[in-house]
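Researcher: Next entry in the queue.
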Amino acid sequence: MIFADRMAAAGKLADALSGYRDKNPLVLAIPRGAVPMAKAIAQRLSGELDVVLVRKLRAPGNPEYAIGSVDESGWVYLTEYAARAGADQAYIDQEVSAQLETIRQRRAHYTPERAPIDPAGRIVIVVDDGLATGSTMIAALHALRNQKTAELICAVPVAPPETLKKLQDKADRIVCLSAPDDFYAVGQFYTDFPQVSDDEVIACLAAV
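Model: Structure for this entry, 208 residues:
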């Protein structure tokens, strides 16, 4: 399945999530690409919008390759291949520190006027524009599970089957529109896949 752009994917996800309409779900985006999508989904479902801040941990010498992730609380998820990628404990500690600083800066930048919306007791839908390794989604779901959500849903347009298997016990429900075997990168499943800027994220959150 090829999506014209993120908004087209968001529309299809909203259709798949229509059972949550008018149940006041909390729709949480993993910045930055998923924020405009999550805003559209929240509007369709009559829910609330916020962000869940997690960051991938970059492999030594290869910043596009994730060896794990960290959530806003400092909890770290490491893949089984982190050591093989050359990440010793000193490197991991340094990378975690750097990504936590980015998370702190983004929280202050994105929602300076308010605290994050409390997910406790809520139906929570975590949205990303696609998953590759799934590292950041795992961290996001872990962070939210610890906050006693009533129901936790992972919603993405596309992900490889092996990544979806990793998530099976991390959420109460996984909604994924396409799980192709020939997966190389999220962007290959979009005709138009531009970067989303911090200014766009701030504008989406300010309009809530």
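Model: Helices lie at 6-16, 34-45, 89-110, 135-145, 161-167, 198-206.
Researcher: Noted, moving on.
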